[in-house]
Design brief:
3-stranded antiparallel sheet; 105 residues; two-stranded antiparallel sheet
Amino acid sequence: MKLIYQYTDDGTVTGTSVVSDSYQPVTGETFTLPPAGLNTPLKYNRETDQFTGADQPEVVTPGPAVSPSDEQKLLMQQESDIAQLKMLVMDQARQIAILSKGSAK
């Protein structure tokens, strides 16, 4: 004979029963005592960099829009310019190769 615990979705134990050794627990039953707050949602605290239990779900409010700094904007523009220049150099190299083949005849 074994002791089985019945519990609710939030982990609150609602009762116990004695069952046979071959009994298989169903949903809402367990052979081990479920911890208190089994399904309590966790809340992340950015200040302490830790998760804590929450009595109520966390309401997420969007923060201020993040935009790139002037330095980041300059770097992105330079990357774009460099990529365009690389494409131009490759195109010119292709044209030079075509013209070199024609003048070699």
